[in-house]
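Handout, page 2. Input:
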Amino acid sequence: MIVYNVTVNILAEKEAEFVAWMKQTYIPRVMETGFFVEHRFLKLLQEQEDGINFAAQFHAETMEKMLHFDKVHAKEIDDLLHATFQNEYISFRSLLETIE
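Output:
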């Protein structure tokens, strides 16, 4: 299983708005592409002076599906995050593989 991980550091004063937006907009939009079979939305427990960290994880059955998502949908969905929160966040993405 391939895990597409998006980690976001959001300003503390935007936390409630960000969490609601992720649940109502971002996660459903990623899942409706059909390339992922499962997702998780997590809050990192380590405190940061410059904001609050969250991770959204999306599970793809194959690397091919992940790469197709990246080619076709990733920019559009990233643009949604940027348009909504502009300079109030920083983010990075990573790909992980589950070990059985």
